[in-house]
Design a protein that fits this description.
- The structure is a homodimer of 334-residue chains.
- The first copy, chain A, is an alpha/beta fold.
- Chain A has two domains: 233 residues, 3-Layer(aba) Sandwich (Rossmann fold), CATH 3.40.50.300; 30 residues, no CATH class.
- Helix content of chain A is 50%, strand content 12%.
- Chain A is built from 14 helices and seven strands.
- Chain A has a seven-stranded parallel sheet, sandwiched between helices.
- The two termini of chain A are 42 Å apart.
- In chain A, 50% of the residues are buried.
């Protein structure tokens, strides 16, 4: 049994068990999340994303250390999500090892998660784990992702503040990635800033930022997962993503980065963006859960072999996929 | 109006128009796909994926040239999908320019597509465009993707033969990416093989292959999108992914790579894997379409403001997402 009082009380073992249930998407995990939901909504969710080789993990470590080393240390959770490893789950092991420096601190909780298979599964499990950390009283939740693609966009949609990490000299195609990812960035970080080429990288980012803003900035709140009416007018004060150089290896630039994160939080609250993002986030979750429930409901009422027969007809090119769906749905209306 | 006879007849302008309708997910596009479906199922779908900086685009160009320069040239379509650019759609422009060398050839059709927003949207549109190319008589369809993540896995699920491209010296985190992506590879390519470090890269790939196979190989057909009973027994003959060095810049290794692709096609047919992959592919499409239709059907019957009210209750933490979904679904049963 999951002990939810122990989770709310901040007991690590209870939280660990809960996270496993959430990752495995069990009934018990879902039930626990429903129970814990009223206790969520307090944490600051910070997404950290960027291409491989930028040193994201070290930077996340430094941020966590920063939050611990202030006069009023905050409880910090690190969730390292690896969408690039759909089968083995072994790829994030390196991150775990690198974070050993933090593991003796009772105010820090580190969890890695590889993709569990289904397309929506990762976003689902990530959202659930973030809620669990939130309910357990972690004030700062750092969500780190590897790779470049849709998963980053999903994480950004989950986070309040999104850091996009770059580094000098990562090869010629890197430019192509930046274009898309820049538009989800609240703060840009040029890590490994002691390497040659840092000026070039920063200059490229700055010129791409000018292309991307302000239009892209204003419109990015209109997330497409929300069929709920978009309620976001233009922000009263625009946030223009700052660029901060860091050297995660020795902590250089990290205090300044922490200050930018704090400033972004203030901006979110003052502009009303925080409420809008919260609403968008919950709307996306509701949307996804509704979709899952509808499919489950349909399946529960499906006749044995119904789907197989439709599939056979597709393979024989007797039906198009569109016609097959019509047939499967119509059978249900009688 | 879309002229489907012109599409089936191989007329480029008609195909271009159709592709735009599919990309924009219009009714007309969906209707056309349903009509064209009986004419699909003949093309060889080849996925080409890998991290940024590996020279995928140049390699795809070379493969296309290779298929054109034989005694019996094949019609080749190139679909360059960029999941990393969810907003601007500008990132693949570079690829378009690089492929200009092929653009004078009437037997080659090149199309780029950036993410259209929704998580499932890209996979949806990609599958539709591949069907259009297939119906229009393109015998080889090269599907190129940028980045590393779930989108690659989706593309691999779509393709008959998946090439994973690596290159020497792409940075320290690259190892982490390989782990997941290796397991979707039918053929591994070490491109830029004239660069230093090629032996190291190839050795690393070889040792990772040994870890990944044969177990991962046998199980990868059990795609999780298929709720249709998995019908795949172990393949009679296992395909162990070969590693081929190439230098796309001058075409070195490309004839050997083409031979491996042809050999994989023969393996797919002889082992029964082709039929299994086709079935899995269509099952995934059916699954997705059924899901979309169910959600659409629910929305059509939703009361005005029903979803908004549920969302308000979520924001106030009066309901959990789980309870909200229950309420939304129960209202429908009366």
């Amino acid at each position: 049994m999951l002990d939810l009082h122990a989770v709310l009380d901040g007991q690590r073992l209870a939280l660990t068990r809960l996270l496993t249930q959430i990752e495995n998407q069990t009934e018990a995990g879902q039930h626990a999340l429903a129970e814990l939901f009223p206790h969520t909504g307090r944490a600051h969710l910070i997404g950290v994303t960027g291409a491989p080789g930028t040193g994201k993990s070290s930077l996340v470590n430094q941020l966590a250390l920063g939050y611990r080393k202030t006069e009023a240390p905050k409880k910090v959770a690190i969730l390292a999500v690896d969408p690039s490893s759909p089968f083995t789950g072994g790829a994030v092991l390196g991150d775990r090892i690198r974070m050993a420096a933090l593991s003796g601190d009772a105010g820090v909780f580190i969890r890695s998660m590889a993709t569990r298979g289904s397309l929506g599964g990762l976003a689902h499990a990530t959202a659930g784990m973030v809620q669990a950390f939130d309910a357990a009283g972690y004030e700062i939740i750092l969500i780190e992702t590897v790779g470049a693609g849709q998963s980053e966009v999903d994480i950004a949609r989950l986070a309040h503040t999104t850091l996009v990490v770059e580094a000098p000299g990562l090869g010629d195609d890197i430019q192509a990635i930046k274009a898309g990812i820049l538009e989800i960035a609240d703060i840009l970080v040029v890590n490994k800033a002691d390497r040659p080429g840092v000026e070039t990288t920063e200059r490229a980012l700055r010129s791409m930022l000018q292309l991307a803003h302000p239009v892209a900035h204003v419109f990015r709140h209109h997330g497409q997962a929300l069929d709920v009416q978009a309620t976001a007018p233009e922000s009263e004060a625009l946030w223009l993503p700052p660029i901060q150089r860091t050297v995660a290896a020795d902590g250089q630039g990290v205090p300044e980065l922490l200050a930018y994160i704090a400033a972004h939080r203030v901006h979110l609250e003052a502009s009303g963006d925080l409420a809008r993002r919260e609403r968008a986030r919950l709307a996306a979750e509701l949307d996804q859960r509704l979709q899952d429930a509808l499919v489950e409901h349909w399946r529960a009422g499906a006749q044995a072999g119904e789907l197989e027969q439709a599939l056979d007809a597709l393979l024989a090119r007797q039906l198009s996929p569109q016609e097959a769906v019509q047939r499967l749905l119509n059978g249900r209306k009688g």
